[in-house]
Amino acid sequence: MVEYSGIKEIIKPVNLVYKKSEIMTENTLSYCPGCGHGTAHRILAEIIGEEGLQSEAIGVSPVGCSVFMYNYLNIDWQEAAHGRAPAVATAIKRLLPEKFVFTYQGDGDLAAIGTAETIHACNRGENILIIFINNGIYGMTGGQMAPTTLPGMKSSTSPYGRDVRTMGYPLKITDIVATLPGSYYVTRQSVHTAANVKKTKKAIRKAVQYQKLNKGTCLVEIVSNCPSGWKMTPVQANKWMEENMFPYYPLGDLKTPEE
Amino acid sequence: MVEYSGIKEIIKPVNLVYKKSEIMTENTLSYCPGCGHGTAHRILAEIIGEEGLQSEAIGVSPVGCSVFMYNYLNIDWQEAAHGRAPAVATAIKRLLPEKFVFTYQGDGDLAAIGTAETIHACNRGENILIIFINNGIYGMTGGQMAPTTLPGMKSSTSPYGRDVRTMGYPLKITDIVATLPGSYYVTRQSVHTAANVKKTKKAIRKAVQYQKLNKGTCLVEIVSNCPSGWKMTPVQANKWMEENMFPYYPLGDLKTPEE
Amino acid sequence: MAKIRGSIVVNVERCKGCEVCMVTCPTGTIAMAKEVNGKGYNYAFPANPELCIGCANCAMVCPDGVITVYKTKI
Amino acid sequence: MAKIRGSIVVNVERCKGCEVCMVTCPTGTIAMAKEVNGKGYNYAFPANPELCIGCANCAMVCPDGVITVYKTKI
Amino acid sequence: MERELRLMKGNEAVAEAAIRAGVDGYFGYPITPQTEIIEYLMEANPAETTGMVVLQAESEVAAINMVYGGAACGKRVMTSSSSPGISLKQEGITYIAGAELPCLIVNVVRGGPGLGTIQPAQSDYFQATKGGGHGDYHLIVLAPASVQEMADFVDLSFELAFRYRNPVMMLSDGAIGQMMEKVYLSPQKERSKTVPEWATTGKPSTRERNIITSLDLDPNRQEVFNQKLIDKYNEIREKEVRFEEFQVDDAEYILVAYGTSARVCQKSVQLARSQGIKAGLLRPITLFPFPTQRINELAGHVKGMLSVEMSAGQMVEDVLLSVNGKVPVYHFGRMGGIVTTPEEVVEVLKSKFIGG
Amino acid sequence: MERELRLMKGNEAVAEAAIRAGVDGYFGYPITPQTEIIEYLMEANPAETTGMVVLQAESEVAAINMVYGGAACGKRVMTSSSSPGISLKQEGITYIAGAELPCLIVNVVRGGPGLGTIQPAQSDYFQATKGGGHGDYHLIVLAPASVQEMADFVDLSFELAFRYRNPVMMLSDGAIGQMMEKVYLSPQKERSKTVPEWATTGKPSTRERNIITSLDLDPNRQEVFNQKLIDKYNEIREKEVRFEEFQVDDAEYILVAYGTSARVCQKSVQLARSQGIKAGLLRPITLFPFPTQRINELAGHVKGMLSVEMSAGQMVEDVLLSVNGKVPVYHFGRMGGIVTTPEEVVEVLKSKFIGG
Amino acid sequence: MTEEIIIAGFGGQGVLSMGKIMAYSGVMQDMEVSWMPSYGPEMRGGTANVIVIISTERISSPIIRHFDTAIILNQQSLDKFENSIKTGGILIYDGNGITRHPERKDITIYRVDATEEASRMNSPKIFNTIVLGGFLKIKPIIRIENVIKGLKKSLPERYHNLIPMNEKALIRGEEIIKEIQKAKL
Amino acid sequence: MTEEIIIAGFGGQGVLSMGKIMAYSGVMQDMEVSWMPSYGPEMRGGTANVIVIISTERISSPIIRHFDTAIILNQQSLDKFENSIKTGGILIYDGNGITRHPERKDITIYRVDATEEASRMNSPKIFNTIVLGGFLKIKPIIRIENVIKGLKKSLPERYHNLIPMNEKALIRGEEIIKEIQKAKL
Ligand SMILES: Cc1ncc(C[n+]2csc(CCOP(=O)(O)OP(=O)(O)O)c2C)c(N)n1
Ligand SMILES: Cc1ncc(C[n+]2csc(CCOP(=O)(O)OP(=O)(O)O)c2C)c(N)n1
Ligand code: SF4
Ligand code: SF4
Ligand code: SF4
Ligand code: SF4
Ligand code: SF4
Ligand code: SF4
Ligand SMILES: [Mg+2]
Ligand SMILES: [Mg+2]
Cβ–Cβ contacts within 10 Å for residue H167, how many? Predict the structure, then answer.
């Protein structure tokens, strides 16, 4: 392992403050540089590790850039058909109600082809966690317009910018889910800064607790970047995200349990 | 034609106040006695007749009891696959933008299997009219639970009453559609009394006007009965509907254009 | 003051005997026949034709479009 | 007052050179190398190690889990 | 323990047999002519007795993906539908085949194409046996010819499904699904507690993580996997062929028919023999694997074969492939939901082979 | 007017040819390896020039049902996808076949089953030719072997689709879709203004209403309709068979291959001949209708046939059915997204027929 | 012995359950039976029918086009099935609501006014058991004791109190036919 | 004549467009060409490659496993494709970033430090045109004038101002090879 380190004297186990979770495997992530998927994975892995859920967790990956997620977290996994992860997770949780079951889905997966499965799983209040990576684009297939693509935003299938008159409006599916009686905790976060990473981690931890208590569906949206699809550097992409995505998809809780 | 008439002297053309629309064909409706589908058909036929839309109208029937609707209105029709009428209508309207295009769908069709097509057509603001017959049940297949079935309501697939914990909550899809920027006019009506028939007719007429002006998607929900599925007489069914369906699905406009 | 009188015509063979018209009629004009039509339904008929005010409520709620309504002032 | 000092370890071969850690670091500890790693990326490294306060911000935002952070009071 | 005698619809028999077989989960969506399956299950409410999960999904697509999820947990799960619904499930089915998951899919076939009719048909043979979904895969396909078999094949299906890690389709039709017949039901089994070693049930520290996927972007590895599937299918072809014969020993003409058509043809054989025509019947019970070898053998002794199906002629291709030119093979079948009569079959037999 | 020369991907060629052919509408959903089709169309923005509608649907299911709606208006409409997406479209496809609607469906095949791989394959042959959806129906299936044919077959597809009121599938693969080759493009055609008499365009007073449906609950009427379809398919079998031959005249061994495999096999023929083996190639251009008769004729003159496909062996069944036992028939093909090499084919040819 | 029967009438007339009782009775007598309803939305239109086959042999198709016996409860069904009865077969029909009576000469026709009789017996619901009794008088393929057993099997426990009434109805049906047969002699 | 070429490197190095220019040039010289990219998410990982075939005959498969010429722009690609070159074939590689150099003895290997050269020429983007020039010097299957025509065809109008620069790069590539070849003599 080639390493480059700062001051050597400080580097000893007792001083360790941050280390990649053991739940992460040694496989190199297949994501583009700076892609938020990796950060989201890491957070999830940390929680699974910290909460001792490795033997409880069953993850469902979508079709999308995160299709290979099963290579990266050292837990049991199922790879679902495009858009169907909530249906897959429904069956898992119903048959293994003691397990921690979650899906991890992109915006194309969850809000386009999977619209019906998303809404109905949430409406049934399935005791699952849905982690929803909203990067406003179809990353894996090379940057096509997603339901969440912003008005005027360019993509390979909206090369002149999304024209809402013919291509529709960005779909705020998380807002819809929040209105359903079956959903319990619905929140929108991001992972592009350390502060946001902390908040997202807190949100996911809450969702884990609620699932233990059989409270219903929890959905954590993570507004994220897609430097490749957006044709920006990662740093530019994060900035653009703050300036353009957040106004449309404001961060914060959309539905919290009345405590 | 065997007829039974009241006072003969009054029966002359000049005194005519109500007659079945010419747009209705001579075919006998296949619906059960007292089923609201027939009334909804009649209203639609009247508007098509009164607005001179016979040569403009293209209807899309769903899979559901109204699958044979093309036998009853004397206009061009397409019979769509279960749940897909909004997608079918999308293409018709895009290719023939001058025509009056509408779908007519049941709650199973529109709010279960067709959830994605419904939401995305409305989200794109397709210039179509969706007439949505919500009878809280799958009529055609013999009375199974629909997404709209009320809590505790019995059906052949919820024989002990809909248990919201395992079967989910009644889905208010019309409310969801009303939140989408692509929808223009969204209203909930009924056809079980003369007064309601008039209101529904007015609503559909509005929708017709809006479509002419390319305003976006209009959705008219008609909360209706299913005497067979509910295992009631038609008169009982209408009463039950008022007492149980309306509180959950309150009649009235959900979204009106800011005029 | 002119009185309003109505009259309805029921297409008996198409009636399905649902009784919706009967309960809707504000004047009690309509009743259901004891006899059945060819489809086996006890059909609606103007049992009290003189009560009819031609309001067309019955026709408006009839799912099968069975009723035609006439009205006049007398 | 005890001063807090940190130190990071970058797993160079896994770095994708996205620069996210660099812009996140509150102290300017990190810079990007002129050289590329085996994957062709200019990787991150602690250019100004003495500035590091061990806040772990860099590690938290690194998508590839490349950075390990140590901290101590001196 | 004795088997219980009941008069039941085929659809009800599947449902009751599923409960008794200790099935863990059923996921379905209503469609005629098989809705009684979910209705029966909901009424029986096995959640209270065996703990079986019964869920009405929002669509056939959701249902088949629920089956994927449940099967991947090593559970005995099933779905049922009829032709249009089965078409919708094709993506899910090929995923299940590609992930090598055991499960049962019941198709109570109705006439097509499209919305078609709701009456019985056998026009989904190609879809079931050749693969309606994309990619090279096969389902094990069982064709019941009675209500009794609809019940019995539930257990058999899961046995085969788990033995080969392969989805099984029960290809029934509207007639068998809707009719009532006598049926002897097996006693209640307990739900299985054994967890297959590949199942995703949460990774204990004692084993590597389990991954269920049908994806491999590396063509070389994918080809190895494809070859593994071929080998499996060949093993199934070798070991699992099931069929029934009726008066074939001295037969000069063989009717080949499955399901409802086979019932009709049994009578046709009697009728033909009463007219001095030596007919026999071969009824494939497994459509995949098809009784290719046996038909090829029989082709050596007879003058011709007639494939009788309620379709435009689908299984006849497998009969032709089996016979491989040895004797003439014809097809006869009614369509659109019409069930063939024994008399019609004999007429066709005569006109094709005997002249007149 | 002269044809314009371009270097294009197969996917781009389909898109450009669609614009030039005056197609009215395209409805699709991204999936590798065919996403360039919708990307090209969006970039070209024909709404501004020909008025063609290009719409990214929310799913493949929505897209195929949009095709249904558009085709029912008598418009020239199309969709495209790759294997998993095509599986999802099966219900829609059988509806389109059942309603007898003309349209073009492009499948740029990748390896399966399930999510499989994104590399080229030919493992959707059964699905395309036998009917992946339920019920008795057939698509007309065209198999392009070059970028040029991907362009040319757009026009041909619509011609056939409208002539027979039947959906047409262009069965390509990831290699032809992704590769660039020279292509000569036809000049821009105007979009057709003729409205077929069956189309739903709003009922004028001058005709009865038009109804597009695939439903008929009356089995007798439905059977008449099924028979009408059979008659149509038989007419297509008679009139529309297309194939290409390469050195078959004196051949002792015939390779049968379509699409990318056919390109490989053409080289194999040369290679074999250079080694003194008289090989020839028959390339089916239409997979349905299949060149059954021609293959049967050829079987009379040769010693054997080898079906070369990038699959576990699918078209080989049609070759066997055509040959009907006259000579031995084998299958060879790579899978998982691997393209066969000319050398491999010759090796197999030798080992199967010549020994060693 | 194989008896192929069609029972047809309005949806609400208990056509399917009459068939079911018949089939269950056959089972009780250790015979092979099949019961095949018309299904689907046509039932909505108001008519329903069921094919019951009772046999000592394995039954081939449950769906057949010609019948030994037709039991007909309304006009539409009469129109539809009169010509499906085999020559020499039997047609039993309830006269209630029938405007065009059956005309075939090559079959034996029995009119049983069961609806009337049932309301005379103050249990309008048992009219179809009366018809069944009549049928079994004509074709004694199943013994009454097995019909009672069949009733017990096919009726949910909570309706078992109705069995005595049904037994009476069976006997009344037999009597009616006896009278008709006497008259025919 | 058939020349089967693989070009491979990092995603951003213009591998695909070098192939495209080559293919277009072939078209300009009236030859048959095929251009087949590696596609799909593997590109994300950072490597990209394209197979270009230029021939006087109809081209069989666009996907092949052995090549006459490999043009290699990074270490991963060198590792992956070194063994795919036919005996007697040619390997051209850019030394930039290469840590393990090619070792085969049965092929002719040319190292062209085009990245360096390009930055010397102040247009880092044209490094692959330099390589192309070098290749055409070794295998003069296409005339430079047709490459220029190909460039014009494959570049969008707005980039045509870059053509003179590219021409220079082509020539520079030829020169580099000339020097190497001289050295090799
Ligand atoms: C049925 C089907 N349709 C389409 C595809 C192609 N496909 C793969 S991923 C994807 C979109 C992914 O976008 P998103 O869900 O937003 O995930 P991201 O890659 O952006 O994380 C599509 C359309 C597929 N694999 N299967
Ligand atoms: C793909 C598919 N799935 C299921 C069915 C069966 N089916 C027909 S109608 C229907 C439900 C109809 O209910 P709804 O839409 O509420 O209409 P209603 O009959 O109540 O008016 C179902 C499930 C079908 N025809 N196709
Ligand atoms: S394409 Fe976009 S979403 Fe996918 S890995 Fe790259 S940056 Fe991330
Ligand atoms: S089943 Fe219900 S919805 Fe259908 S026609 Fe009858 S009453 Fe109406
Ligand atoms: S018109 Fe009015 S008053 Fe007359 S019968 Fe009808 S409802 Fe009654
Ligand atoms: S509402 Fe119409 S169908 Fe119903 S009883 Fe009255 S007339 Fe008859
Ligand atoms: S730990 Fe904090 S100070 Fe140190 S390099 Fe990382 S971000 Fe900078
Ligand atoms: S954030 Fe991680 S991958 Fe990105 S530059 Fe820093 S260390 Fe490298
Ligand atoms: Mg995305
Ligand atoms: Mg409904």
Answer: 18
Collapsed DSSP state (helix, strand, coil) of residue E160: helix
CATH of the domain at D18: 3.30.70.20
Domain boundaries, chain H: 2-181
Q: Is F155 on the interface with B (CB under 8 A)?
A: no
Q: Kindly determine whether residue A166 and residue F55, on different chains, have CB atoms separated by under 8 Å.
A: yes
CATH code of G2-181, in short, is 3.40.920.10
Residues F125, E256: Cα–Cα separation, whole Å: 26
Which regions in chain C score pLDDT beneath 50? Answer: none
Q: Is the CB of C15 under 6 A from ligand 6?
A: yes
Q: What is the pLDDT of residue H128?
A: 87
Each residue's pLDDT tens digit, H127-137: 889 999 999 99
pLDDT digits (tens, 9 = 90+) for B55-72: 999 999 999 999 999 999
On whether residue A94 sits in a domain, the answer given is: yes
Residues of chain H contacting residue D36, judged by C-beta atoms under 8 Å apart: 97
Across the interface, which of B79, B157, B159 has its CB nearest the CB of E30? B157
Residue A130: domain span? 30-255
Tell me the pLDDT tens digit for each residue of H88-117.
999 999 998 888 999 999 999 999 999 999
C35 Cβ inside 6 Å of ligand 6: no
Q: Is residue E169 classed exposed, middle or buried when 0-12, 13-18 and 19+ CB atoms within 10 A define those classes?
A: buried
Is A153 within a domain?
yes
Query: Model pTM?
Result: 0.98
Neighbours of H165 (CB within 10 A): 15
Q: Is ligand 2 within 6 A of the CB of residue B155?
A: no
A97: domain CATH number?
3.40.50.970
Report the residue count for chain G: 185
- Give the Cα separation of E142 and E156 in Å (integer): 9
pLDDT tens-digit readout, E120-173:
999 999 999 998 999 999 999 999 999 999 999 999 999 999 999 999 999 999
CB count, 10 Å around CB of F294? Answer: 16
- Cβ contact (<8 Å) for A81 and E55? no
G39 and E182 within 8 Å at the Cβ level: the answer is no
Residue F61 to residue F73: CA distance in whole angstroms: 19
Residue C74 lies in a domain: no
For residues E69 and A89, is the Cβ–Cβ distance under 8 A? yes
- pLDDT score of F320: 98
**Ligand 8, atom 1, residue with closest C-alpha:** D62
Contact residues for E79 (Cβ-Cβ < 8 A; gap 6+): E26, E27, E28, E60, E63, E64, E66, E67, E89, E103, E104, E105, E106
pLDDT at D1: 60
Domains belonging to chain F, first-starting first, are: 4-194+227-239 (3.40.50.970), 243-354 (3.40.50.920)
- Six token digits for residue B53: 């839309």
- Domain for residue C44, yes or no? yes
Could you tell me whether strands F286-288 and F279-284 are parallel, antiparallel, or unpaired per DSSP bridges? unpaired
pLDDT digits (tens, 9 = 90+) for E168-201: 999 999 999 999 999 999 999 999 999 999 999 9
Candidates B140, B144, B155: which one to mutate for ligand 2, based on the most atoms within 8 Å of Cβ? B140
**Could you tell me if B91 and B127 are in contact, meaning their C-beta atoms sit under 8 angstroms apart?**
no
ipTM: 0.97
What average pLDDT does the segment A161-166 reach?
Answer: 97
Tell me the C-alpha distance between H150 and H152, whole Å: 5
Q: Which of E226, E230, E307, E320 to mutate to test the interface with F (most CBs of F within 10 A)?
A: E226
Please give the Cα distance from D8 to D30 (Å, whole number).
9
Residue D32 maps to a domain:
yes
Nearest to E59 by CA among A209, F271, A119: A119
Q: Which of residues 75-134 of G touch E (CB under 8 A)?
A: none
